[in-house]
Amino acid sequence: MIKREDYLNVFYNYLDTDFLKIIIGLRRCGKTTFLKSIIEELKGLGIADENIIYISLENVKYRHIKTSKELDEVVLDKVKDIEGKIYLLFDEIQLVDEWEESINSYRVSFDCDIYVTGSNSKLFSSELSTLVAGRYVHINIYPFSFKEILKYHNEINNIKMDKTKIYEYFMQYIEYGGMPSLLSLKDEDGKINALLDIYDSIIISDILSRHEIRRIDTFKRFVYYIMNSIGQTFSKKSIANFLKSESKRTSRETINNYTNFIVESLFCHRVLREDILGKKLLSTDEKYYLTDHGFHQALVDENNKWLPRIIENIVYIELLRRGYSVKVGWVKNKEVDFIAKNKNNKIYIQVAYLLASDETIEREFTPLLNIPDKYDAYVFSMDEFNMSRDGIKHMNIIDFLLGDEI
Hints:
Residues 205-352 form the DUF4143 domain. This is ATPase. By secondary structure, the chain is of the alpha/beta class. The chain folds into 2 domains: 5-140, P-loop containing nucleotide triphosphate hydrolases (Rossmann fold); 208-402, no CATH class. Helix content is 43%, strand content 19%. It contains 15 helices and 12 strands. The strands form 2 sheets. Strands 7-6-8-9-10-11-12 form a 7-stranded mixed β-sheet. It has a 5-stranded parallel β-sheet with strand order 2-3-4-1-5, sandwiched between helices. Helix 4 (99-109) links the parallel strand 3 (86-91) and strand 4 (112-118). Helix 3 (68-79) packs parallel to helix 4. The model has no long low-confidence stretch (mean pLDDT 91).
């Protein structure tokens, strides 16, 4: 596998600090590989093998560990004869009950640097905040970016990149997404089956089993509806009506629980809307985007009509990778696809597949022209000609994904 340099830079920023490093991401998005790359980096720094303790809770060797007490027994046995700083790495820590207390006790008891991974966002919240308030940092891991996919094909498959190859791989990226395990597969059926397998592991292991959902078919129809609605405003009423139309009545409370479950599993992201002029969040009609858009292609009927939404999904996740917090904007009864903020910057973005008509150009540029502040505004599309106007920058989507302007 390739080195994921952006994540390793974060690792080096916090190496040998008192912060607990929490590596969080969707199942099979590369957390374990990243954790093993950390081990290789530590060895490269001269850390002795015996000072690096790696425990995968999914490994048959450690599957018996279900409680914090059982974890403590294993860890205490491993560290008892070690001299010097200890590096503790725990993969899928959420499989251990009350793991937070054990991890906190290791921080207090040993001279150690601790890294944990997990696949559910809720598990890294209230209890952990109480025990180690202000002393932990999240490293959010996402599926491969388009830039990383090109790096993989260049370094692993020795493919020389030119404009034609880049476009070819981009069209594959649109179709199959960026889950790392798919890159070694050659045929379409293999990639689709791999995505279906990952989807099943998320739905069955991370959601149905954990939350003891009995109405399995209703829940799966709900998830299908979410995937079928990416990039569209979503209301509890609309999904209730959809399920009712399929003879699957359910309450709004249940729908609210279902949406929380799929967001906590990191399968998708909930995006709130913000009134740009009023500077306030709007309480209705959220949007949802998939952490990996390949699931949409694998589970929803293929049709070119989805391309604009898939590309919008790609841009959203890329903004998260780059450290932005993202909301959907609303100004003068028109929608702005994204308001992206970080500690240094704020930008407005519209996303289109092609600016193929005057009507489309008007639709994409007008909302940005209605924003009175002076922050940068962009329109992304697949068009190769620069169509910037009136202070709004136009950028080709591939150039955005491979560049670092934003």
